Amino acid sequence: MSIFPRISLKPEVTEYLKSVFLNHEVLAAVDRQEAESRFHKLLTCLSHPPSYTCVRASTHLSSLEEIRHKLGEELKKQQKWSSPVEEASLQILPHPQIPDVLLLPVNGPRPVKQLNLEVVVGAQCGSAVLRGAHVFAPGIVASPKYMKAGDVVSVFSDLEGKCTRGATSFQGKRVFVGNGVAEMDRCSIFCTDKPAKGIGVRMIEPLYQSPSFDGILPTLVFLQNLPSVVVGHVLGPRPGERILDMCAAPGGKTCHIAAVMGDQGEVVALDRIRNKIDRIRQNAQMLHLRSIKAHCFDSTQAVSSDPAHAAEGPPFAPESFDRVLLDAPCSGLGQRPNMANTWSLKEICSYQPLQRKLFHAAVQLLKKGGVLVYSTCTVTLAENEEQVAWALDTFPCLTLQPQEPHIGAEGMLGAGLSPEQLHLLQRFSPELMWDQMERTAPLPRRADGDTIGFFIAKFLKN
């Protein structure tokens, strides 16, 4: 059900995306009306959250069924149910194909009445609320002049980032995301020398109701989008292997790789930003994973010019890794919910050269017979299928491989790839299911189509 406007983009970006989704290969396969319909469905579904929460379970520490039971007990303790019927409706379902995924339905959009007292939050904070989070104080940009702790307030998301921090009201472009109880006075948020921390508004009537996982079973459950979990399984890590995660922060996929291989072997995680490396190490420690070695390093420079180079850290000698994950920096246009993106077309199109530099390093670092998985969380051809076509042309040693599991759609037309090649790619395209997949459909059937926009390609180095 559509209750929000389509994602707000700069006009030049909208036109660029339209040209992608109505390219000549697509129009040769489907009529223009169908292609335009898919494009407009994409813009609509991007502004809405998926109809479920995906949780990756730490099955290296406990069985899926035991984690499912513990999660249910914790959620029953921490949720404030408005009725016994609502409590009984809590569902935690295993994914039918992915052995370490649990799915929880999201209830929404719900009929929530707007109140007189209004708090305005940034767009990123508003998106987090739609996925079950409370409002943390740094996300608040405006509040009533005399707001005090205990006040019941309506929360609005500032779509265009135009609300002045500390304002007492805002009439710009915004959307309602639910009601909550203020945990802080206004002065505690805006009138302090240090940035405010902690929960500013505790959501009690969110427009989309899903559990808050703040502090719940941190070693056993990890919030992760379904396609991001699929990537780890497609990579197929095996015990004893040496694996490289090239752009690893914040470490969700890194930790998943280590867990899938039973923490036996070595998972090298690289990222350019030092505090993100600290986050990866913290996650690894929390999940009791000892095989992860995290380094602050630019992956485009990760290949040593000395073939005999044998240092533990980067740069590495060529052909040092059994498998490589290149979850590349990208324009992120597949993320949901995302009601507004203020990037220029130049920014949206700036990632392809970096992705190709990373590809060059990845192929050099991969052993013969090794597996390379390339993934993004965006919907453009330039960063997905066109990169695959370029890689196959640039590196004759690479061949596309089947993916397991393959629960998304095949690759998108428009990059000159053959039908057989497109069939081997995996593109998660929520727009394809937007009208057909009613939120009343059984959750496991709904989950594979109602995802973020995402792309996966798997290569073998011959």
Automatic annotation (TrEMBL):
SUPFAM superfamilies noted in UniProt: PUA domain-like, S-adenosyl-L-methionine-dependent methyltransferases
GO molecular function, one term: RNA binding
SMART domains: PUA
Binding site for S-adenosyl-L-methionine: C247, A248, A249, P250, G251, G252, K253, D271, D298, D327
Example GO BP: RNA methylation
Signal peptide location: none
Active-site residues, record numbering mapped to chain: C377
Limits of the SAM-dependent MTase RsmB/NOP-type domain: 146-462
Residue spans crossing the bilayer: none
Record keywords: Methyltransferase, RNA-binding, S-adenosyl-L-methionine, Transferase
Superkingdom as given in the UniProt entry: Eukaryota
InterPro entries noted in UniProt: MeTrfase_RsmB-F_NOP2_cat, MeTrfase_RsmB-F_NOP2_dom, PUA, PUA-like_sf, PUA_sf, RCMT, RsmB/NOL1/NOP2-like_CS, SAM-dependent_MTases_sf
PANTHER family in the record: NOP2 YEAST -RELATED NOL1/NOP2/FMU SUN DOMAIN-CONTAINING, TRNA (CYTOSINE(72)-C(5))-METHYLTRANSFERASE NSUN6
The family this protein is said to belong to: Belongs to the class I-like SAM-binding methyltransferase superfamily. RsmB/NOP family.
Protein name in UniProt: SAM-dependent MTase RsmB/NOP-type domain-containing protein
Organism of provenance: Echeneis naucrates
